[in-house]
Design a protein that fits this description.
The complex is a heterodimer of chains A (320) and B (285). Chain A has 13 helices and 12 strands. Chain A is α/β, with parallel strands linked by helices and 320 residues long. In chain A, the strands form 2 sheets. In chain A, strands 1, 2, 3, 4, 6, 7, 8, 9 and 12 form a 9-stranded mixed β-sheet that branches. Chain A is elongated, with a radius of gyration of 23 Å. The two termini of chain A are 36 Å apart. Chain B is 76% helix and 0% strand. The longest helix of chain B is centred in the first third of the chain and has 39 residues. The two termini of chain B are 45 Å apart.
Chain lengths: 320, 285
């Protein structure tokens, strides 16, 4: 009994401390005993965003070992199904939420807010011995990948006459991947529309292996996979009408590598954000993302953009 | 004479065919082992077992993954064995042969062929959502139990069938009830063969990933599960995640993880084989 009373008294004091406007490191430990806090933040969603969230969770654990942050990887769509049932607090997403998912969230009364946390570039890759391709236009990529190309466009010289009369072998992510959705949307113009007769794998390392061992191959996947395998692959500049641009941190950041760069998001349940633990995690995410994103192979936003996201977060907190 | 030589040649040919069949399996296993050991053996260390997941491949460990695997394994044993063996005893010893038992039998055999992801979807609806067990060790173990139950039922029935009818009849003739006969005569006699089926079934369960991902088994978990209702991850999920990462360091971690998983399966199977041998030696008629 006595212990219980003491505990309640202490909690009151701690709560009083944590609500003081001047929050600094010293009372971070105390604030997770906030009445509403459950000491847990559950995250699921995109496997593309996973490395970023894992890195943030890892660093967050070092500062706040009392808050259990768990991260799953059901994919962006699978994650939204759970998120919109209120089963998770945060959803990692490699694309914006879809209309159908918004309806799902609405129907179960889930409100949310999204933040952009990083950029990812899609790299178009050929074999290093490929000496004929010095750039590809968006139209040429479309010609190779659109559904009508199936069984029709099978040779390199069908793309440009001067290119060799050799088989064009295509490698790309499988249809369940957010990368596939994004590429088809950006290149073919319709999400999910693609030829089916290409070598597909959900594991990008398999695609790396495939392109690296086939002189007449062409593939696309996340830029990070190219960065780790530079010696085995050759990067193709993409021409969107103005100029041929190679993907790099700079060209992805300033938007000139278009249309094959995309933002990565986190979606937060606003009920969860009302909790001290989730709010603290989100703030930590936005503060540290800039540094952690490049460590795991993605491209950070500019400092101003992160500041804007932070401002959005703070304004949002006030509306709660 | 001619016919005899021909028979001998066929005999020899068949022997070499048998050796070929055996060695294909062994060569595949050896190739896997050599590949995995050369990549991952150097990565094994105490730290690897005690560290939490990390974005730095050299700092990352499998503490939550191997403890999760043992949790799942332990609970699956507790749930699947009584259910599977119980069902098999009922089907083999109590039901009358007829239309209904045929239907049951065909259905159980069919269950064994259902893709594991389907069990994941079933588990998500029943255990995670309807029974509100959440994305917990218990949900995972229940799903894997369902998944391997058909295998246990089928192999246990075979084991029970192999017990000589005379033993049962002698026991019944001495006035033992059916339950006493099953408990004191049939089960001990069938136990070693039942165990063989259980070993095969559990080895399958320990490598499953798909149904666990379906129910939302996590990938980054910074704590070891303390109760059956905690969240968890397992080795196959951790390995799967590492293999698909771009950094070469994670591929090495994945190989080391595979060695640990193989080690766990090997040790557990070893224990079961010893128990089976002991039980076999005990049977004296």
């Amino acid at each position: 009994m006595k212990k219980g009373a003491l505990f309640i008294a202490i909690s009151f004091i701690l709560v009083a401390c944590s609500t003081s406007p001047n929050t600094d490191m010293a009372n971070e430990e105390t604030s997770n005993r906030e009445v509403e806090s459950i000491g847990q933040v559950s995250i699921d969603g995109s496997s593309t965003v996973f490395p970023v969230t894992e890195a943030v969770a890892e660093e967050f654990y070092a500062v706040n070992p009392d808050i259990k942050v768990t991260v799953g990887l059901s994919g962006t769509g699978g994650g939204f199904k759970k998120f919109c049932r209120g089963e998770t607090d945060v959803n990692d997403a490699s694309r914006p939420i879809k209309e159908t998912e918004i309806e799902l969230c609405d129907s179960s009364g889930i409100d949310y807010v999204d933040f952009t946390v990083a950029y990812d570039g899609l790299a178009v890759i050929v074999h290093p011995d490929n000496d004929w391709v010095d750039e590809l236009t968006v139209a040429e990529l479309k010609m190779m990948w659109e559904p009508d190309a199936q069984g029709e466009i099978t040779k390199w010289n069908q793309i440009r006459d001067e290119w060799p009369d050799e088989e064009l072998s295509l490698y790309g992510p499988g249809t369940a991947s957010g990368t596939f959705d994004y590429f088809t949307e950006a290149i073919v113009g319709e999400e999910g529309a693609s030829r089916g007769d290409y070598t597909a794998s959900e594991d990008d390392n398999v695609l790396v292996q495939g392109v690296a061992s086939d002189k007449y191959a062409l593939g696309f996947f996340g830029l990070a996979y190219y960065e780790e395998n530079k010696d085995k692959l050759s990067l193709v500049p993409v021409n969107n009408g103005d100029e041929a641009v190679l993907p790099s941190e700079e060209t992805v950041k300033n938007g000139t590598y278009s249309p094959l760069s995309r933002p990565l998001f986190i979606y937060l349940n606003d009920q969860a954000l009302a909790r001290e633990d989730a709010a603290e995690f989100t703030q930590f995410y936005l503060e540290t993302a800039g540094e952690l994103v490049s460590e795991v192979g993605y491209i950070p936003l500019t400092d101003e953009e992160y500041a804007a996201e932070m401002e959005k977060y703070e304004t949002f907190l006030e509306t709660l | 004479m001619n016919r005899i030589t021909r028979s001998k040649i066929i005999d020899q040919l068949f022997k070499y065919f048998g050796i070929l069949c055996t060695s294909i399996g062994l060569i595949m296993l050896a190739a896997l082992l050599i590949n995995v050991f050369s990549d991952g053996f150097g990565r094994l260390s105490i730290d690897f077992f005690t560290a939490l997941p990390s974005r730095f491949p050299e700092k990352a460990g499998i503490l939550t993954a191997w403890t999760g695997t043992l949790w799942i394994f332990g609970l699956t044993i507790l749930i699947a064995i009584p259910l599977g063996v119980g069902a098999a005893i009922y089907l083999e010893e109590y039901t009358r042969k007829g239309f209904l038992s045929n239907v049951l039998e065909i259905n159980i055999a069919n269950l064994a062929g259902i893709p594991s992801i389907i069990y994941g979807i079933l588990g998500l609806t029943i255990f995670v959502r309807t029974l509100r067990l959440g994305e917990s060790v218990l949900s995972g173990a229940l799903i894997l139990s369902l998944l391997i139950m058909p295998i246990i039922v089928v192999s246990t029935r075979e084991a029970l069938r192999a017990v000589p009818k005379t033993i049962k009849e002698a026991s019944l003739a001495l006035g033992a009830s059916q339950w006493q006969t099953i408990w004191h005569q049939v089960l001990p006699a069938a136990f070693p063969n039942i165990l063989t089926g259980i070993i095969l079934a559990l080895s399958r369960a320990i490598g499953e990933t798909a149904p666990l991902i379906m129910i939302g088994a996590l990938t980054y978990v910074p704590f070891v599960a303390k109760s059956p209702l905690d969240e968890f991850t397992v080795l196959p999920i951790q390995i799967f995640n590492w293999i698909s990462r771009p950094q070469a360091g994670f591929a090495i971690n994945a190989a080391a993880g595979i060695i640990v998983l193989l080690g766990i399966v090997f040790v557990l199977n070893g224990i079961a084989v010893v128990i089976r041998q002991r039980a076999r030696n005990k049977i004296k008629w």
